Amino acid sequence: MRKSFLLLASAVALALPALAVADTGSTTVGIGYDNVGIHLGNGVSASVPAGKLTIGHTFGTTNYGVGFDLVDGAGNGLTYQHMQITGEKLLPFDGGVIAPRILVGGSRVGIAGGNSYHVSTAYAGFGASYGYPVGRYVSLTANAAMGRDFATHVTGLHTVGGLFYQAGAAVDFGGVGPGMFTVGYEYRHLPISISKGLHLDTSGFQARYNITF
């Protein structure tokens, strides 16, 4: 399952930059580090170091955009993969930019090498982000989303998902070489089985460098 997850993520990651060739818009690529705190509700709680790839594309003057995030890491007896795809509309609002969005994604945690036991789920929902410049080279961004998770799985158990939600904030620093440096935090709650007290909660501290083409 992990192999198919990464193959799908790789296909999306290769497809999005190609949009810049066929369209007059802009593409932003970010690479960085994500320290992911994982809590499953069954006694499993650990921090996993991970790499993060982000790709975003804005379609010309339409202000419509798509985004792709991929996180992959391992440590402290766990493996972790996460992927999210978003579609949004950028709208000027009160000196900043608000972006209503729809999103779909999935997360997977493997235990004992990722083969003997794993927890996974997919999700879909809606939300929004808001970015506001506070200086020539600094801007703040906050985001939140909610929806439903589905295709939940725990090795050896029957599971039913529920309401998921996530929220995050970031600070962007421009004027750092040819791109922009971003630090941020994101929390995500994905219920796996309410009756069994299982969930896939993650809290990540992130740092990455972004370049726009």
Write structural notes for this entry.
- This protein is mainly β and 213 residues long.
- Helices cover 10% and strands 70% of the residues.
- The protein has one helix spanning 2-22; strands at 26-39, 45-58, 64-75, 78-89, 91-93, 96-111, 117-133, 138-154, 163-176, 179-193, 198-212.
- The chain has a ten-stranded antiparallel barrel.
- A hairpin with a 5-residue loop joins strand 6 (96-111) and strand 7 (117-133).
- The two termini are 33 Å apart.
How many strands in all? 11
The arrangement of helices and strands along the chain is HEEEEEEEEEEE
Task: List the domain count as a whole number.
Answer: 1
Radius of gyration: 17 Å
Q: From the 3D coordinates, which CATH architecture would you assign? A: Beta Barrel
Fraction in helix: under 10%
Task: Work out the oligomeric state of the chains in this entry.
Answer: single chain
Low-confidence stretches: 4-9
The strands making up the biggest β-sheet line up spatially as: 1-2-3-4-6-7-8-9-10-11
CATH fold name? Lipocalin
Strand content: over 45%
Total count of helical runs of at least 4 residues: 1
Q: Structural class per helix/strand content?
A: mainly beta
**Overall 3D geometry?**
globular
